[in-house]
Amino acid sequence: MPVDEEVAVKIKTFAGVERIRRKETTKKTLEKVFHYCRDCSGLTVMDVGCGYGDYMAEVVRRGGTVYGMDSDIYQLALALVYFKRLGMENNLHLFHHDIQEVFERDELFDIVFCLNVMEHIPKERKALKNIIDLAKVGGKLFFLVPIGMKTVEEDDSKEKEKEELTDNRGYTVFFPRSFVNQSIHENGGVHVRDYKKNEFVEKLKTFPVEVIANDIFSARGERNNIYTIQSVVVKKTQGVL
Ligand SMILES: C[S@@+](CC[C@H](N)C(=O)[O-])C[C@H]1O[C@@H](n2cnc3c(N)ncnc32)[C@H](O)[C@@H]1O
Q: Is 116 in the pocket of ligand 1 (CB under 6 A)?
């Protein structure tokens, strides 16, 4: 079934809304990622494991053409809801696909994102090969992986309140509750591995890529957790792997 039809069927099951507050991690990672591609005009960007589409929306704002892939049809439906709310639905191209399988497509992309996804993927090496295969030679790939998490006890409700008030780009997002629940119920979002510092970048170096940025930063998540994240940008140096 084409993804549009599949999504339309799911959308009929809407009931209630869920408020999703974007996390500080999202704000910080948006800054990190777009530091290396400030102007996306004329570029094609594939977001693997796109979720509801924060990063895809930013690509559109910066003039790029965006493609999103996710193995969870509920996340793709949420992306459609989100893009409709932003009035950007005509800019969205979605694929329902598990990146552990080869993605058959002639066109390659200037930029590939894989943000907060690798820790969910059991067949890591297979997925990495398929992800790198999506990029043009000379194209850039952006990865984020968590490398640690700790809990903080302090109350940050005032800070959250402030975030909501200062939001001018749909900072708090409302979604159909049934979708969010189904997605969590069926797909969990469980991490299948914990990356150690630099473990992921070392794995990437076994592929034909050149590392052009490698940063570590921390940010607060939605459940009052502090996440430490490794952000890696590479350039693809060879054709079909
Ligand atoms: C933690 S979310 C990250 C979403 C988004 N990239 C972000 O950073 O906000 C992980 C996403 O990866 C998707 N995902 C997990 N395994 C996948 C796979 N094998 N192929 C494609 N997408 C996958 C999940 O459905 C989910 O939407």
A: yes
